[in-house]
Design goal:
The complex is a heterodimer of chains A (about 650) and B (about 425). Chain A folds into three domains: about 1-60, no CATH class; about 75-275, Penicillin-binding protein 2a (Domain 2), CATH 3.90.1310; about 275-515 and about 525-645, DD-peptidase/beta-lactamase superfamily (Beta-lactamase, 3-Layer(aba) Sandwich), CATH 3.40.710. Helix content of chain A is about 35%, strand content about 20%. In chain A, the strands form six sheets. In chain A, strands 2, 3, 6, 7, 12, 16 and 17 form a seven-stranded mixed β-sheet that branches. In chain A, helix 14 crosses helix 16 (about 400-410). Chain A is elongated and about 135 Å long. Residues about 10-25 of chain A have low confidence and may be disordered. Chain B is mainly alpha-helical and about 425 residues long. Chain B folds into two domains: about 5-180 and about 350-420, no CATH class; about 185-260, no CATH class. Chain B has a three-stranded antiparallel β-sheet with strand order 1-2-3, covered by helices on one side. In chain B, a hairpin with a 2-residue loop joins strand 1 and strand 2 (about 100-105). In chain B, helix 3 packs parallel to helix 17 (about 400-420) and helix 6 (about 115-130) runs antiparallel to helix 7 (about 140-160). Chain B starts with a helix and ends in a 6-residue tail after the last helix. The model of chain B has no long low-confidence stretch (mean pLDDT about 85). The chains are: A alpha+beta (about 650), B mainly alpha (about 425). The interface between A and B is large, with 57 and 73 residues.
Chain lengths: ~650, ~425
C-alpha cells in the first residue's frame, strides 16, 4: 500500500521538471486538461462521502439503538394496586397517596453573575430545613447522596411524605428551585387486623427482577407475603409509560412522537375475599395475649372466614418510611409475630385426631359403630370416665385406651402372619385414610408458605428403627394425636369441615372473586369436593359424638356451648417437648355449628396453655361461633375473661421495642 | 453595460442551486434550534430567526452584485483586499473572544467574523495579480508575491486562533495548479501529510518512525535503480537529500505533535484515529454526530422529528455540525441529495470557469469552486468522522450570518463576472 503511494508520489516529482511553466491568458490553454483532474477529484470526494454515509446510515444499525437509548426516556406510571374487600363488601386494604420529595442537585445552584465558575445556593436552605424538620447536616448528607447518584437527574430527597405533612408546606414548594414532588401510593388498612392473611409489599430483590424482568425494575414494589404475594400478578396491574424526549442534560423536552408511544396504566384487580372482617377482628381480640391461632372456614365452600396467628401485628407497621425499623423490631420479638402459626406451625394434633381415627377404622371395617373397649389405663394414660361401649361415646369422652385399641386393629389387621410385615401393611392403609382428610400434604390454599404437616409412612419407621423391627406397639402414640404425627392448624380446621360436610372438604381459600366492580371472576380452582371415601353414616356418628362433647354430661368441651346454637366440637390436649423438656400442654379445639347445616367450622390452637383443650380453646371457639352466627356476643363477661387471659407458659415475653408509626 | 443585457446573460443554474441549499439549510437550523417556546419563523431571539434575517440580507447583496458593474471587482480587488486586511487587524485589536479565539467584531447588535470575508478578497486580489500583463508564474518573484498575498490574511487569521479558516487558504492551491503551478508542490504536500499521519497515528506501534524512514529509503532506492536505471551523481545527491529531509521530518513530527500543536489540536487528530478512545471527552462530538446521522437510516425520521437533534447531544449542531440534522431527519436519501447538490454546483462552477475568456474571471471562478469544495469536503468529512474536527462551516447551510453573507458575495461576484464571460477584463 505505502509502496504504491510512494511510486505515485515519485512519479509526480519526477515529471515536475517536464512541465512547461508559463502563463496563459488566451484561449490557448496548455493546462486545460488539468480541469478534468480537478473535476475528477471533486467527484471522487463526493463518492467517498456518499459511501461513508451509506455505511453509517444503512449498514451499521448500532447507531439507531444508541440514539434511542440516549434520547428517549421511558417514564413509568405506576398503576394503583388492587383493593382488598371482605365477604360483606367491606374495604380492608386500599391505597393512600404519599409524596416523595425529589431533587435535581444542579438546579439548586445558580451561577455567579460575575464569576462564571462560582455557584451559589438558589434556595433558602434554612427555611427548607425548617419546613421539612431536618437539620442542616442532614440536608447536606441527603443532597450529597443525590449528587452522587447524578447531579442532573432527579433522585429522592425525602421519601414518602404523608398527605397532611405535604399539604402543610405545599404552598411554599415553588420557592425551592430544583425540588419537586412525585406522587406514589402506599398500602393502607381500614382496621389494624389481618396482617398474616393480607401480607405486605416491599421492594423487589434481584431474584424477583430476574424472574419477571419484563415487569419489575429496581425500586418497584412486590407482594412479599400473604395475599399480596399470592395475587401479586392480579393486584399489581399494568404499568403505563410515557416516552419522553430528553436533551443532553437529561432534561425532558417533550413527548416522543406527540405521545403516540405512551400508554396509561391499568389499575390492578381487586380481591373480593371470603374473610369476615368483623370476625377476623373479634378472633384477633380473643387471641390477644396468647400464642396460637384460629382458622375459621365455611365448610360448604371452603372459604376462609378468619385466619389469626397470635401474636399478630398492625399491618400499618410495615408500610412506608417506618417499615424497615418496624420489621427489624418484629423480627427480634421472641413471640415471633411475623410467623404465621396457622399455616406454618406443625403441631401434634392431640385428641382431635381421634375423630379421623374412628372414621378410618369404621370404613376399613376393623370396628363397628358399637364396638366397645374398656378404659384400660395400663395401655395408655386416661382421665377418669366410664368405659365407652360405642364409637360415639369414645369420641365424647376422648378415651385414650379406646383409640389405642382402634389403632391396634388398624395397624395389625392380620393380613400377614409376621407382625412386622402386618404393621407395614396396616400403616400404609391407615396413612392413605389420613391423607384423604388432607393431613400430611400441603393444602393448596391461596396463601404462601403453607406447611404440609407429617403423617409417617413405612420408610420413615424403617429408617427410624433401622430395619423392619417396628410394629403397633412402638407407634401407638399416633392413635391419640401424639408421636410422629404433625398437623398444621389449617388442616385441623379442615378436619372440622370434613365432619361438618359428612365426608368431604373443599380446599380452603381466601379469595372468592378477582376483578373490579363491573367484572368479577370467581376462583374456579376451589370448587372440587375432595371426598374421603368414608360413608356418610359413619360421619353421622362422629357428628353425634362431637355434639355430645359439647352438650352431653361427661363431654370434654362443654365450655364451647353457645346458647341457642347446636355446636359440635372435639377437644385436644397436646403434650409437647422442647428438646427433652416437657412444656405445658397445647390446648386444642375443633368445632363446627350449627350441627345440621353447618355455617362455620374452625380450629383453635392455644400454645402451652396448661389446662387442656376444654379449658382454653373450647370457650374461644364458642365465642367465635357466637359472634359469626349471631353477629354479637351476649356473654360479655365470658368474652372479657378470655380476651384478657394470658394462659401461655412460659409467659409472653415483653416486646423488644415500641413500634414506630 | 446595460442592466437588461446583464439580466439576460446570467446563468441561473448556480442561483437556483444556491437558493435550494440556503433554504434547506435554514429548515435544518430551525430543526436544530426550535423549541416549543420559540416556534416562530421570525423569532429574532433565536438562531433560526436571525438566520432568516441574514438570508434576506444576503439576497439583497446578491441582487446588488448581479446588477453592479463587473469592473468594480477587477479594478477594486486591491481595495477589497486592503480593506479586509485592515478589518482583520482591527479584529485582533478590539475583537471579542469566543471558544479561545478572537475572531469577532461587534458593530451594534451584529457580530461579524472578518475571516469569512477575507476569502473572496484574497481570491480577487490573486486573480487580479496573476492576470497582470507582466506577471510570469515561472518567476520566483511571482511565487514570492503569491505567498505574500496568501500569507498576510492567513497569518492574521491564524493569530485569531482560527485554525480552520487558516487552513481554507490551502484551497488556493487548486486554482494555482490549474494555471500551471508545478504538481511538485502537491507531491511534497502529499508525502508530508502521509508521513505526518503515519507518524502521529503510530500506525506501526513504537517502531513507526523507523519503518516510515525505511519506506522512504525503499522509495529512494526504487527511484534510483528501477525508475532511473542508471543514476548519475546528481541523482544520488538528490535522493540522499530527500531521504534526510523525510527522516528529519518524521522524527520531528513527534516533537511537533507534542510540543508545537496545542492540546485541543492534538485531540482532534487523536480522535480521528480512534473516536472510541474517549467518548465522553475528545471523541464525544464525532461519536454523537455519527449516532445522529446513523439513526436516520434510509429515509430519516422526518423533518422536525429527530430525537438527537432537538436534544442538543451534538454541540454546535446548528453551525459546524448542521449536517447531523440532515442525516437524522432526512436520512441517507436526503444526505446524498445534499452531497449531490453541492457536487452539481461545484462541477457547474468549473464549467463556468472554463468558459471564461479572461484569466481574471477563470482564476476567480476556480477560487470560488475550490473554497466551496474545501469547506464541503472538510465539514462533511469531519462530521462523518473521516477528517479531524476542524471548525469550518458548511457553505450556505450552517448557521452564521458572516459565513452566509461572505459565501454569497464570493459566489455572486463570479456569477456576475460570468454574465460577461466573453469579455476580457
Amino acid at each position: 500500500m505505502w509502496k504504491i503511494i510512494y511510486i505515485f508520489a515519485f512519479h509526480l516529482v519526477a515529471h515536475a521538471d517536464r512541465h512547461i511553466l508559463f502563463i496563459v491568458s488566451t484561449m490557448n490553454d496548455t493546462f486545460k486538461n488539468r480541469s478534468q483532474y480537478i473535476r475528477m477529484a471533486f467527484a471522487l470526494v463526493a463518492i467517498i462521502l456518499i459511501l461513508r454515509l451509506a455505511y453509517i446510515q444503512l449498514f451499521d444499525k448500532d447507531y439507531t439503538t444508541v440514539a434511542d437509548a440516549q434520547a428517549l426516556r421511558e417514564v413509568v406510571q405506576f398503576p394503583a394496586r388492587g383493593y382488598i374487600y371482605d365477604r360483606n363488601g367491606k374495604l380492608i386494604v386500599y391505597n393512600e397517596a404519599v409524596f416523595d420529595l425529589m431533587v435535581v442537585p444542579s438546579e439548586t445552584l445558580v451561577r455567579d453573575k460575575n464569576d462564571r465558575k462560582k455557584y451559589h445556593q438558589a434556595n433558602d436552605t434554612a427555611l427548607l430545613c425548617r419546613k421539612l424538620g431536618i437539620t442542616h447536616a442532614d440536608y447536606e448528607a441527603r443532597m450529597e447522596k443525590a449528587r452522587t447518584y447524578s447531579p442532573v437527574v432527579a433522585s429522592i430527597f425525602m421519601k414518602q411524605i404523608s398527605k397532611e405533612e405535604y399539604a402543610s408546606w405545599q404552598r411554599d414548594l415553588y420557592k425551592f428551585k430544583g425540588f419537586y414532588v412525585q406522587r406514589r401510593t402506599l398500602r393502607s388498612y381500614t382496621r389494624p387486623v389481618g396482617a398474616h392473611v393480607l401480607g405486605y409489599v416491599g421492594e423487589v430483590n434481584d431474584s424477583d427482577i430476574k424472574n419477571d424482568s419484563a415487569y419489575y425494575r429496581r425500586g418497584d414494589y412486590i407482594g412479599q407475603s400473604g395475599l399480596e404475594k399470592t395475587y401479586e400478578n392480579e393486584l399489581r396491574g399494568v404499568k403505563g409509560k410515557t416516552v419522553m424526549q430528553v436533551d443532553v442534560h437529561s432534561r425532558t423536552i417533550g413527548h416522543y412522537l406527540d405521545g403516540k408511544m405512551d400508554c396509561t396504566p391499568i389499575e390492578g384487580n381487586n380481591l373480593y375475599t371470603s374473610l369476615d372482617l368483623d370476625l377476623q377482628e373479634y378472633a384477633e381480640k380473643l387471641m390477644s395475649n396468647k400464642r396460637g391461632c384460629v382458622v375459621a372456614i365455611e365448610p360448604s365452600t371452603g372459604e376462609v372466614l378468619a385466619l389469626v396467628s397470635a401474636p399478630t401485628y398492625d399491618p400499618n407497621l410495615l408500610v412506608g418510611r417506618v417499615r424497615g425499623d418496624n420489621y427489624s423490631m418484629l423480627e427480634a420479638d421472641a413471640n415471633k409475630p411475623l410467623y404465621n402459626r396457622a399455616l406454618q406451625g406443625a403441631y401434634p394434633p392431640g385428641s382431635i385426631f381421634k375423630v379421623a381415627q374412628a372414621m378410618a377404622a369404621l370404613q376399613q371395617g376393623v370396628i363397628t359403630p358399637t364396638t366397645g373397649f374398656a378404659c384400660n389405663k395400663s395401655l395408655v394414660g386416661c382421665h377418669n370416665h366410664p368405659s365407652a361401649g360405642r364409637v360415639q361415646d369414645a369420641i365424647k369422652m376422648s378415651c385414650n385406651p379406646y383409640f389405642y385399641n382402634v389403632y391396634n386393629r388398624m395397624i395389625q389387621q392380620g393380613k400377614y402372619k409376621n407382625v412386622f410385615k402386618d404393621s407395614q401393611y396396616g400403616l400404609m392403609v391407615w396413612r392413605d385414610y389420613m391423607l384423604r382428610f388432607g393431613f400430611g400434604q400441603r393444602l393448596d390454599i391461596d396463601l404462601p408458605n403453607v406447611k404440609s404437616g407429617y403423617i409417617p409412612d413405612t420408610s420413615f419407621y424403617n429408617k427410624w428403627y433401622k430395619g423392619h423391627t417396628w410394629s403397633f406397639s412402638t407407634i401407638y402414640s399416633n392413635s391419640i394425636g401424639q408421636g410422629e404425627v404433625l398437623v398444621v392448624p389449617i388442616q385441623m380446621a379442615n378436619l372440622a369441615c370434613v365432619v361438618a360436610n359428612r365426608g368431604y372438604y373443599i380446599t380452603p381459600h381466601v379469595v372468592r372473586y378477582v376483578g373490579n366492580d363491573s367484572v368479577k371472576t370467581r376462583r374456579k380452582e376451589y370448587v372440587t369436593k375432595h371426598q374421603t371415601g368414608i360413608d356418610k353414616r359413619y360421619f353421622d356418628i362422629a357428628v353425634a359424638g362431637m355434639n355430645d362433647v359439647v352438650y352431653a354430661p361427661g363431654g370434654t368441651g362443654h365450655r364451647a356451648a353457645v346458647p341457642g346454637i347446636s355446636v359440635c366440637g372435639k377437644t385436644g390436649t397436646a403434650e409437647n417437648y422442647v428438646g427433652k423438656v416437657k412444656r405445658a400442654d397445647h390446648s386444642v379445639f375443633i368445632a363446627f355449628a350449627p350441627k345440621d347445616d353447618p355455617k362455620i367450622a374452625l380450629s383453635v390452637y392455644v400454645e402451652n396453655a396448661a389446662g387442656g383443650g376444654g379449658t382454653w380453646a373450647a370457650p374461644i371457639a364458642g365465642l367465635i361461633i357466637e359472634k359469626y352466627l349471631k353477629g354479637t356476643v351476649e356473654r360479655t363477661e365470658v368474652e372479657r375473661t378470655y380476651m384478657e387471659a394470658s394462659p401461655c407458659q412460659p409467659l409472653m415475653k415483653p416486646k423488644p421495642a415500641t413500634p414506630k408509626k | 453595460m446595460a442592466i437588461s443585457s446583464t439580466y439576460k446573460k446570467i446563468d441561473y443554474t448556480p442561483i437556483v442551486l444556491y437558493a435550494i441549499i440556503v433554504l434547506f439549510g435554514w429548515l435544518n437550523i430551525f430543526a436544530a434550534c426550535h423549541t416549543e417556546a420559540h416556534a416562530e419563523v421570525f423569532d429574532l431571539s433565536v438562531q433560526h430567526g436571525k438566520q432568516m434575517i441574514w438570508i434576506v440580507i444576503s439576497a439583497i447583496f446578491a441582487t446588488l452584485i448581479l446588477f453592479s458593474e463587473a469592473r468594480i471587482y477587477s479594478n477594486g480587488a486591491y481595495i477589497f483586499y486592503i480593506g479586509v486586511l485592515l478589518m482583520l487587524i482591527l479584529t485582533l485589536a478590539i475583537g471579542k473572544s469566543t471558544n479561545g479565539g478572537v475572531s469577532w467584531i461587534e458593530i451594534g447588535p451584529i457580530k461579524i467574523q472578518m475571516s469569512e470575508f477575507s476569502k473572496f478578497a484574497t481570491a480577487l486580489v490573486l486573480a487580479k495579480y496573476l492576470s497582470g500583463q507582466d506577471v510570469d508564474i515561472a518567476e520566483r518573484k511571482t511565487w514570492g508575491t503569491i505567498l505574500l498575498l496568501l500569507g498576510l490574511p492567513a497569518a492574521l487569521i491564524f493569530l485569531q486562533h482560527d485554525t480552520g479558516s487558516t487552513l481554507v487558504f490551502a484551497s488556493f492551491l487548486i486554482p494555482l495548479y490549474r494555471i500551471g503551478m508545478p504538481p511538485l508542490i502537491f507531491s511534497i504536500g502529499f508525502i508530508a501529510v502521509a508521513l505526518f499521519v503515519g507518524a502521529t497515528s503510530e500506525i506501526f506501534g513504537r517502531f513507526t518512525n523507523y519503518i516510515l524512514c525505511g519506506l522512504v529509503l525503499l522509495g529512494c532506492l526504487f527511484y534510483l535503480f528501477i525508475y532511473l536505471g542508471k543514476p548519475k551523481t546528481k541523482d544520488y545527491v538528490k535522493a540522499i537529500a530527500a531521504l534526510l529531509i523525510c527522516c528529519g521530518f518524521v522524527f520531528s513530527v513527534d516533537y511537533i505533535f507534542d510540543h508545537v500543536l496545542e492540546p485541543h489540536q492534538q485531540n482532534r487528530i487523536k480522535v480521528l484515529y480512534d473516536p472510541t478512545l474517549d467518548l465522553q471527552g475528545k471523541g464525544y462530538n464525532v461519536h454523537q454526530a455519527k449516532i445522529a446521522i446513523g439513526s436516520g437510516g434510509l429515509t430519516g425520521k422526518g423533518a422536525l422529528k429527530g430525537t438527537i437533534t432537538p436534544a442538543h447531544f451534538v454541540p454546535e449542531q446548528e453551525t459546524d455540525f448542521i449536517f447531523c440534522t440532515v442525516g437524522e431527519e432526512w436520512g441517507f436519501l436526503g444526505s446524498m441529495a445534499l452531497v449531490l447538490l453541492y457536487t452539481w454546483l461545484l462541477q457547474h462552477l468549473i464549467t463556468m470557469a472554463e468558459r471564461q475568456a479572461s484569466l481574471f474571471a477563470r482564476f476567480y471562478g476556480y477560487c470560488v469552486a475550490s473554497i466551496l469544495f474545501f469547506h464541503f469536503m472538510v465539514n462533511i468529512g469531519m462530521v462523518l468522522g473521516l477528517l479531524p474536527v476542524i471548525g469550518i462551516p458548511l457553505p450556505f447551510f450552517s448557521y452564521g450570518g458572516s459565513s452566509l453573507l461572505a459565501f454569497t458575495i464570493l459566489l455572486f461576484i463570479f456569477i456576475r463576472l460570468d454574465a460577461n464571460h466573453m469579455s476580457l477584463l
